[in-house]
Amino acid sequence: MTTIPIELRAAAVRREQLRAHARDLGIDGALVYSRRRSAVTWLSGYTPGFISHSAALWVPTEGETVLGVTFPFEVDRARQAGLRTVAIDSPVDLLPERASSIGLLCRDLVVDEATPELFQQLAARGVRHVDLASWAAEAREVKTPEEVTALTAAARIGDLALRAATASPGETDYVVAARVEAAARAAGAHRCLCLVGFGNGSFVTEATGQRLEAGQVVGLEVSLYAFGCFMHVNTTLPPMPAQETVTDAVGLCRSARAAILESLTPGTGVDDVVKAGDAVLSQHGLLRFKEYDFGHGLGCDTPEYPRLIPGTGRTVRSGAVLAVHVMLRRPGGETAMLGGPVVVEPAGARELLPEAVWADPH
């Protein structure tokens, strides 16, 4: 018996939700297009490769879903998603002649991939469209059971990649990042990027050739795509011998993260969640050295809802999966980062992977 990959099962559930939404809107179907983001992956399970490649999806209210790819040689691989697949020059090529009103999904919370040419082509055919981005953003926040399973599998790859990290004095950040990325890709990640920071007060950033000096702390941030979803994890490699400043900073990040998790209950305001983490840092006089935010939703892309930043006016929803991370960066002083995925359930938040390096204090 053939086992259907989890990303294909997750996508099939979401396609039916999109189809039902299109029926409610009284339109012919939904046209989904993405170049580098993952709207098509979310609804098909197919992950395009190559910088210049893109894919589109036509989900009709009635009839057969069709996947389109711009590279003809990708057709055979794309067909592994179990959908009728064709080569296209434009997403509009997927529309049946009779289509007159459609939903259009080409953007998410931060990136709009619709082009002027796409709108011109729709207008030339007399096709009216409605934007489905808001519907998709809200739908993505509450994960299906299949998506939670896929995200858990991706988290395992993130944990494995961080455990593969080693850094010795004299090595460059290129070497450190390469170890992490190689471990992730070998474990099944479609893409992986490891950011590195050497020394107290450093940012984590793309490798630049910096060499690690003896006694320097190492910060790591891993972003990867696997099983049709995005994963984001962070950790700190303390210097040897251990320094009290680094040990204290890691412990404080862990304490602030624990306070955030405790406050992540359904119905709680996001502002209150942020205040819970800020309060821990403030008690130790380090709030002004907080770097970045406290996290964001995880799913087929990043960021998704909820975003742990003040002023959103949103509340925590049961079913959300998000990266919760804390970073301190005090020039010449406390520097550490720690973070990974949690899932919000009716009773509160729990670690998606309790045994992971970001979750296990031992």
UniProtKB/TrEMBL annotation:
Residue stretches making up the Peptidase M24 domain: 151-333
Transmembrane intervals: none
Species assigned in the record: Yinghuangia aomiensis
Alphabetized SUPFAM superfamilies for the sequence: Creatinase/aminopeptidase (SSF55920), Creatinase/prolidase N-terminal domain (SSF53092)
Protein name in UniProt: Xaa-Pro aminopeptidase
Gene3D superfamilies in the record: Creatinase/methionine aminopeptidase superfamily (3.90.230.10), Creatinase/prolidase N-terminal domain (3.40.350.10)
Creatinase N-terminal domain segment(s): 14-142
InterPro entries: Creatin/AminoP/Spt16_N, Creatinase/aminopeptidase-like, Creatinase_N, Pept_M24, Peptidase_M24B
Lineage of source species: Bacteria, Bacillati, Actinomycetota, Actinomycetes, Kitasatosporales
